[in-house]
TrEMBL record:
Keywords: Isomerase. InterPro entries: 6-hairpin_glycosidase_sf (IPR008928), 6hp_glycosidase-like_sf (IPR012341), AGE/CE (IPR010819). It comes from Paraglaciecola algarum. This is AGE family epimerase/isomerase. Pfam families: GlcNAc_2-epim. Belongs to the N-acylglucosamine 2-epimerase family.
Length: 396
């Protein structure tokens, strides 16, 4: 009797997921605790190819928020037992060095000596602090973090609410509006609703879903647009033709979560985003995902970073879980390919637990340092993969 190829694929995926979770637990998280934190407990911006922290580059404040999420998630999954202590170090850093006036939004960038060099308030930063606060409340019942989240929402609604929907990019002058900060706000709002059941967070997520339906998603081309004019009309220059397949996959995962919470039908959106993301973004020579694609210039950008691979994994698993039964596409096979390719190309740094950042046109390494911010993507993919095999015990 010939073995069932579907069952064989499921078993291979299960093994790959378990190996990936072991890498996160035993190598990645310990590496970033040991090498990625300074003596004050704040996160360095990145590790160099030799595994040492880069002591000479500026620090984005959002990295502190992303590492708060990482340590909360690691604590929740019993990969570490000191998550609250680690988060306290990150929190003290931003409160001490990035605090500006009485704002609950921190300064945007500090230099290597912890001096504020960009005091702007940035919406992308806000999204990740909201996510971090949601996870802190979820894992540790951190009421202070929940209070931070409530105050942060009030401040962006007061200071950054944009015309024609959404929020402004920040407190600075900008040429374009972007979907990306709103996508991460969507993620944070869904997280905060899931852990608090406070309907205001779901209402805010609903505002962004409306932007997705009416602005971000191009129904004619079936893709996610990235850049817009101040009134949310699509840009007519080259920026208006740019898509990022990794973001399209990320929206698949987020839309599935939104549908679970609200009952909103999202199958058509998810199908379009997933398959168009592969159509435009998959480099067949390497099974890697392109960073950016121009709908009008096929040679626009042929680089491939680590993080889009994690979003492909999440999207494939979400589709395998929630898509219509009539959709016979083998999403678990895609998830297995994505996870194997991630491990083969990116989890091969000289230092155990670190990773490679980016490949070039000829599939050669062009960026071998490891941004701290990428660990958020890697851990989130791990959480989704773990949930998938737990929910599919009857299959595996």
């Amino acid at each position: 009797m010939n073995p069932n190829p579907l069952n064989s694929n499921h078993q291979k995926l299960k093994v790959d997921i378990e190996q990936y979770l072991a890498w996160l637990h035993k190598l990645a998280v310990p590496c970033w605790i040991e090498r990625g934190l300074d003596p004050q407990g704040a996160a360095y911006e990145r590790l160099l190819s030799n595994g040492q922290a880069d002591l000479n580059c500026d620090r984005r404040v959002r990295v502190q928020a992303r590492q708060m999420f990482v340590f909360a998630a690691a604590h929740k999954n019993q990969w570490i037992n000191n998550g609250l202590e680690l988060i306290a170090g990150l929190d003290q850093y931003v409160q001490r060095f990035a605090k500006t006036n009485n704002s609950v939004i921190f300064a945007h960038i500090l230099d290597k000596d912890n001096q504020v060099i960009n005091q702007s308030h940035d919406l992308y930063d806000v999204a990740f602090f909201l996510l971090a606060y949601g996870w802190r409340y979820h894992v540790f019942n951190d009421l202070k973090a929940l209070d931070y989240a409530n105050k942060l929402l009030l401040q962006i609604d007061t200071d950054l609410k944009g015309q024609a929907g959404g929020w402004r990019e920040g407190s600075y002058t900008y040429q374009y509006r972007r979907q990306n900060p709103h996508m991460h706000l969507f993620e944070a709002f869904l997280t905060l609703y899931s852990v608090t059941k406070d309907a205001k967070w779901l209402a805010k997520a609903g505002e962004i879903f409306s932007l997705f339906e009416t602005i971000f998603f191009d129904s004619k081309q079936q893709v996610l647009l990235e850049f817009f004019n101040h009134d949310w009309t699509p840009c007519h220059d080259a920026k208006g033709q740019i898509i990022e397949p990794g973001h399209m996959f990320e929206w698949v995962w987020l839309l599935r979560q939104y549908s679970l919470l609200t009952g909103t039908p999202v199958d058509d959106y998810c199908h379009a985003l997933y398959h168009k993301g592969l159509h435009y973004g998959l480099d067949q020579s390497s099974d890697l995902i392109l960073d950016e694609v121009s709908l009008s210039n096929t040679k626009h950008k042929q680089t491939k970073r680590c993080w889009p691979m994690t979003e492909w994994i999440k999207a494939a698993l979400a589709q395998a879980t929630y898509c219509k039964k009539s959709d016979q596409y083998n999403y678990t096979h895609d998830a297995q390919i994505a996870l194997s390719s991630l491990s083969k190309h990116f989890l091969v740094a000289n230092t155990n637990g670190s990773y490679v950042d980016q490949y070039g046109v000829e599939n050669q390494v062009i960026s071998d340092f490891a941004p701290s911010s990428t660990l958020y993507h890697l851990v989130m993919a791990g959480l989704e993969a773990k949930r998938f095999i737990q929910d599919k015990k009857d299959v595996f």
